[in-house]
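Render this sequence as a predicted structure.
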Amino acid sequence: MAAFDYRPLRENEIRVLKPTSARNLEYRLVHVSPGSKLSYSALSYTWGDNICPYPIRLDGGDFWITQNLRDALHQLQQDRKADYLWVDAICINQIDLREKSVQVKMMTRIYESAHKVFVWLGKPENEEQ
């Protein structure tokens, strides 16, 4: 499979995920401005370790994520909680330090502009949690 490549962002633009499959973790990235009419949710979660052994499909390419993020995305998809979703580890190009610096400064606005914010602390250890 092909690796994923980011398209550059314009000033004051962010990326949000749009699911393209009801069963698999497959998405396309949509560029929007925070505060635009597009309603999106944001995910706040613990990154866990930086080992990224789990692939998702992103704009037709492979993108690798942590187990904790995979679990969160899987749960949100199962519950059909978000049509558009902002996730820092995916929506910000973590390798592009300039973009990362600009986007981190926008994070308060990104969360404030989200229709909903989901908090993921991890999978419960048992079904009663």
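Summary. The longest strand covers residues 26-32. The chain has a mean pLDDT of 90.
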